[in-house]
Amino acid sequence: MQQSAVAMKHVGRSAVREKVLVIEDEADILELMRYNLQKEGYEVIGVNSGEEGLRVAQRERPDLVVLDLMLPGMDGLEVCQILKSGAGTQKTPIIMISAKGEESDIISGLELGADDYITKPFSPKILIARTKAVLRRLEEAPTDDRSTVSVHELNIDPGRFQVLLAGREIQLTLTEFRILHFLARHPGWVFTRYQIVDAVKGEDYAVTDRAVDVQIVGLRKKLGEFGTYIETVRGVGYRFKE
Ligand code: CA
C-alpha cells in the first residue's frame, strides 16, 4: 500500500491519515475532489460554504485546506484571511481553487498567506500533486536566510555572497543575488512580485514590483541555460522550479 503511505503523518508513535478540508460549493467538483483525495489515502471533509468551512477548520484542525475562491456568502479570500489570522489555523496550509481569469484574486490570496493555487478546470492528477507538494514542504525544515542553498546545479552561499552554477562562479548584483536566494530557498512556491520585493528589499535600496521583472531578466541571462529554473507564472509572479 505505497499509495496511502504518503498520506500518513506520524503523531507520537502512531501514524494517522492526513486530513484535508475541502471548501467548494459545486457538488460535483467537491465529490470529484473527495473521491480522488480519498483514493490517495487522505481523510476528507467536504463542506459547501465558507462559514461552515471556518467552523470545521476550528474544530477538526485539518492538515490542509483546499479552498474554492468563488463561494456564495463569505467568499474564499475572506475565508483565507480569517484562517491565516486565526489562532489554531494560522499555520494550516491553503490551496486555493480559482476559475480562469481570477489572477487578481490569486495574487490577493497568495499575499494573504495561501500556499498555492489550482486553476479550474483541473485534473485530479494536478490536485494530488499540489496536495502532496504543499504537505511535503511543510515537513521540510525551513532554511533561514543565511544558510547555503543547494538546488539543482546551483549552490548559493549568502555568507560569501557567492553563487556557483555547475561548479562555476557567476557574478550577480546584490539585488539579483537576493532574489535568486529567496526563490531558490522555496522551490515550487509561487511568489507575487510584491512578495519578492518585500523579501529582498534592504534599507540601502528600493525595489519596485516592476523592477522585479527587470531583475529576473538579468538573472536569467546570467544563469544561461539554467535560466529556466526561474519560471514565470503568468499574471501572478515567479517560481523557482521544483
Ligand atoms: Ca464555486
What labels would you give this structure?
Arc Repressor Mutant, subunit A, 9 helices, 242 residues, Rossmann fold, 5-stranded parallel beta sheet, 4-stranded antiparallel beta sheet, 2 domains, binds calcium ion, alpha/beta, single chain
Task: Walk me through what this model shows.
The chain is of the alpha/beta class. The chain folds into two domains: 5-139, 3-Layer(aba) Sandwich (Rossmann fold), CATH 3.40.50.2300; 144-240, Arc Repressor Mutant, subunit A (Orthogonal Bundle). Helix content is 41%, strand content 24%. The protein has helices at 2-5, 27-39, 50-60, 76-85, 103-112, 124-139, 174-185, 193-200, 209-223; strands at residues 8-11, 14-17, 19-23, 43-47, 64-68, 94-99, 116-120, 149-151, 154-157, 162-165, 168-170, 190-192, 230-233, 237-240. The chain has a five-stranded parallel beta sheet with strand order 4-3-5-6-7, with helices on both faces. A hairpin with a 2-residue loop joins strand 8 (149-151) and strand 9. The structure holds calcium ion.
Order of helices and strands: HEEEHEHEHEHEHEEEEHEHHEE
- List the quaternary state of the chains: single chain
The side-by-side strand order for the widest beta sheet comes to 4-3-5-6-7
Please name the fourth-level CATH homologous superfamily of the largest domain: Response regulator
The assigned CATH architecture of the largest domain is 3-Layer(aba) Sandwich
What's the total count of β strands? Answer: 14
Radius of gyration: 19 Å
* Tally of alpha and pi helices: 9
> β content, as a range?
15-25%
What name does the CATH topology of the largest domain carry?
Answer: Rossmann fold
Query: How confident is the prediction overall: mean pLDDT?
Result: 90
Q: Assign an overall shape.
A: globular
Structural class: alpha/beta
| Domain tally | 2
Bound molecules: calcium ion
Spatial gap, N to C terminus: 26 Å
Largest sheet: 5 strands, parallel
Which residues sit in consecutive blocks of at least 5 with pLDDT less than 50? Answer: none
